[in-house]
Amino acid sequence: MAYRIGIDVGGTFTDFLLTSEEGSSEIYKVLSTPDDPSIGLMNGLSEMAKARTTSLGEFIKNVQTIVHGTTVTTNAVLTRKGAKTGLLTTKGLRDALEMRRGIREEQYNNRYTNVEPLVPRYLRFPVEERLDYKGDTVTALKKSDVSDAVKLFKKEGVEAIAICFMNSFADDEHESVAAKIIQEKFPDTYLTVSSEFLPSIRFYDRISTTVLNSYVGPILKRYLTSLLEKLKSAGFKGVLLIMQSNGGVVSPQVAMEKAAATLLSGPAAGPVAGIEYTSVQGYDDCLTIDMGGTSFDAALIKERTPLVTTEGEINRLRLALPMLGIVTIGAGGGSIGWVDEGGLLRMGPQSAGSKPGPACYDLGGELPTCTDADLLLGYLDKDFFAGGKIPLNYDRAVKSIKEKIAEPLGIDVIEAASGMYRVINVNMASGVREVSVKRGHDPREFPLVVAGGAGPVHACMIALELEIPVMIVPKESSIFCAAGMLMSNLKHNFVRTYSTFFNRIDAKRFRSLFREMEKEATELLKSENIPEDSIQHIYSLDMRYVKQYHEVNVEVTREELDRGDFESMTGKFHPEHNRLYGYSLEEEGTQIELINLRLSSIGKTTKPKFREEEYDQENPSQAFKKKRKVYLPQKKAFEEVPVYGGHKLRYGNKVKGPAIIEQVNTTTFVTPEYNVLCDKFGSYTMYLKEKEKEIKEKIGLSE
User: Fold this and answer.
1) Same domain, 203 and 87
2) Are residues 406 and 503 both part of a single domain?
3) Contact indicator for 638, 629 with CB cutoff of 8 Å
4) Is residue 530 part of a domain?
5) pTM (two decimals)
6) Which domain covers residue 165, as residue numbers?
7) pLDDT tens-digit readout, 372-424
8) 664: alpha, beta or left, given left = phi > 0 and alpha = psi -120 to 50?
9) 111: helix, coil or strand?
10) Taking CA 452 as the corner, what is the angle to CA 446 and CA 454, rounded to the nearest 5 degrees?
11) What is the H or E stretch that residue 650 is in?
12) Contact status, residue 517 vs residue 546, Cβ threshold 8 Å
């Protein structure tokens, strides 16, 4: 039997989704191994083999594809443990990494210092050269400066080098010559050249992104090389793909060259999965939330397309590569509860992670976490957590919350636990507002796709906070991003700067730049074994009103490009600007400026099939396990509620809230305001009780 595996390495757990060619799927979770994530990955593969009573070697021979989301590069930046990096830049611009764009992040905080650059000043080597904005040479490249830089970098033990010259996006000759000198004199170093990696306007954005790529490149290269060797030793002969921040996947070789494209690779699979799980119910839009052990991710999908940004940051460092517009906050099952100096209860962003973990894990953790509170409130079963693999210590959870939260606040333990539950729910609701309300969307108009091992425990309260009437909890919610990885296509992004007014545009040059990107994209995807008939190109333009600071990205069609229909293209700009910023200057006749041409090229891959179940019945009695006392936040009291086994629920079953639905890898808490209907794909649709007729029609249960 042939298998495909999606793997998401998180801060606490490493998640696996194993799918077969028949359409069946299985979920696996193992504790992450932060010191070497590949150990946890191989442990998960060994568990799969063990479950089939076979050796890892025999099992892995049948694995066709592994899609892997990695946090290796993310952690390197967050912990400042990337490669020792040197920078070559134009003389006079050595301090651009510190000067940035001259904008203080906290405008009214005079004590807020700039983020420390990844490259110290003594490793930023100024090179005599200069191009003007058109790419014409003002000062010729002084090759001896490049040679001197190599001597310094060798002496200092530099592992990676970044090259970023002023205006090199307009002409790459100077950077190309410098790169050749470095490759000849220092062939073993990891090298990123900005004119190849990100040939676009805005010097700080380009230099920061180029440096980030070199800073994390050697780390990812070592990790992937080691992982490939381990998989090869185990007998793996299939295809390994790596998840990118833009929601697509690439080969390990491309990932090693464009390491910065993986800086947010894990969360990026969530919106991809959200599209698939909602589209089978007929939705085009949705919000996705993913609450794991360490973090909470929220994203918005409109017309089956996730929002994309090219103005991202990681640890306050600018990353100008296209990435999905995901808001991440420190809110997860391991988020630590604490009382601040003003006597207020806080949750996170610090996390207990997998080591030592929450106090109730009984692995040495002593600080109270979200999971400890959930246990005290009855949402988790101490004997069934992770299917019984991780028995929870109730007394340790009580002791931790009592000493660290209840006593300092002068309240009882249950009141403290319910306060922790309430605070983290409000924090997560604020995260959802960031991706919806602040971007001009009403969250009440979107179904909420709930994921992560901890997500379904908190979903109803988040939805009530935001007045969201409908939620979908996928069958694979606990390994949502791992599932999304198997649903992802190969994807590459390209950009060319062409700064001009639309009334002065050179149509021939405009089209030739797109053709140049298309050719590069097609060759790259073909090298990754994608046939030409499975390649799709998506075209867009960065535009702005003249003298404006920010651009708006607008998608255009191939037909508009071929016709040179610039009036149609600019006509799309005004309403999009109005949606994002609340005004349009169309009637004033303000000129529109073109800044960048962008191409997103997709190589379509084979997706796992959704298995449809036969209709069972409305009565879920066959899944009933027992009753247990659960804290109901709205009533501020415990009440006995039915507990159902999620693996026994079938299509058409209806669970009335309040209730608990237990699965091996997650628990769903249904508050009194909601009911649950199981759809034909095994997902739970939670809805406000007055919405029942509408939901039944949506999932094919209308009478």
Assistant:
1) yes
2) no
3) yes
4) yes
5) 0.83
6) 80-216
7) 999 999 999 999 887 788 899 999 999 999 999 999 999 999 999 999 999 99
8) alpha
9) coil
10) 105
11) none
12) no
